[in-house]
TrEMBL record:
Main location: membrane
Protein name: S-adenosyl-L-methionine-dependent methyltransferase
Signal peptide coordinates: none
Annotated keywords: Membrane, Methyltransferase, Transferase, Transmembrane, Transmembrane helix
Recorded superkingdom: Eukaryota
Length: 306
């Protein structure tokens, strides 16, 4: 009687299992990385670009080696802020349904775990640069906690004051990372951060016109909701006053000052003349173009007078 022999070949089978596992892990990694990106995507033009430009001119930037460091530091802290901020699912479901929580890419509970995990991670990252950078990170964490968890964003006065302080902390940390000496800021750099914080505190309500419906749903007190239509020409007036003041402070020549003031008038004028939600979104883009131009003025002063 002949014997039938079965020969097993485990290697192709193991390779197949291993390949499937690696593919699944890679897919999960891409998915979660995309989720993290979605937390910050809407703030790329409104935060990443203006503050990165600001840090480069306020530092001033002397080595291109510092650019990826300042961009990552800023993005990582923006991620920490946004995971804290984006826990009002009712508002986001109305205003920004593509964000991770309303889009059901991450649960509210897991977003809060991520939020509190990122806080010490930001401090550790900052300490790797300098103690002063860590202090800026810790200050930002306190302002974030006051703004979101303590509901400082629900009242007009605290909302805009904390916006100014928060942006100043963002800028201080990013500017320190942009410097070769990450332990101190020079006089023009400190003045630029102070002025920028004041600009945001007094004009950042430009972002609230597009969110009036969602803010109303959760009872948030914003200038556009409280004062209505008059807040639009008030914003235009504020932007023009800041444009003229900054042109004087940074000693801009006639052509530079004229262009900057006209840019501010255009950005602010859009809020007065175009009042639909979609136009308010576009106007906010132009507001951030104006802010970016304001952030470049310290660099103009350094090149011409320093």
């Amino acid at each position: 009687m002949s014997t039938i022999k079965f020969q097993l070949h485990p290697e192709p089978f193991c390779r197949h299992i291993c390949s499937d596992w690696l593919s699944a892990q890679f897919g999960n990694t891409i998915y979660h990385a995309h989720t993290l990106w979605l937390f910050t995507e809407s703030d790329f033009m409104t935060t990443m670009v203006p503050i990165s430009l600001f840090a480069m001119v306020a530092a001033p930037l002397r080595s291109p080696y510092n650019v990826p460091h300042l961009i990552f530091w800023l993005w990582f802290h923006l991620l920490a802020f946004n995971t804290s901020n984006q826990t009002s699912s009712l508002e986001d479901a109305t205003n920004k349904p593509d964000r991770p929580i309303p889009a059901r890419r991450i649960s509210l509970r897991h977003a809060k775990v991520l939020r509190w995990t990122l806080t010490p991670a930001c401090w550790l990252l900052s300490r790797a640069y300098s103690q002063e950078t860590m202090f800026a990170s810790m200050a930002l964490s306190v302002f974030t906690w006051m703004y979101n968890e303590l509901h400082g964003n629900s009242r007009s006065l605290s909302r805009y004051a904390l916006n100014g302080l928060g942006f100043a902390a963002f800028e201080a940390g990013t500017t320190l990372v942009a410097r070769d000496d990450k332990t101190t800021l020079d006089g023009p750099g400190r003045l630029a951060i102070l002025l920028s914080g004041c600009i945001f505190a007094t004009t950042i309500y430009a972002q609230d016109f597009r969110d009036v419906i969602g803010d109303g749903l959760i009872g948030r007190d914003t200038i556009p909701i409280r004062f209505g239509a008059p807040s639009r020409p008030a914003l235009l007036t504020g932007i023009i006053i800041w444009s003229m003041s900054l042109s004087c402070i940074w000693q801009a020549d006639l052509y530079t000052a004229s262009f900057f003031i006209l840019l501010g008038a255009f950005a602010g004028g859009r809020f007065v003349c175009m009042t639909t939600v979609e136009e308010d979104r576009r106007s906010y883009f132009w507001y951030n173009v104006w802010v970016s131009a304001a952030h470049v003025l310290p660099g103009y002063w350094r090149m011409k007078y320093s």
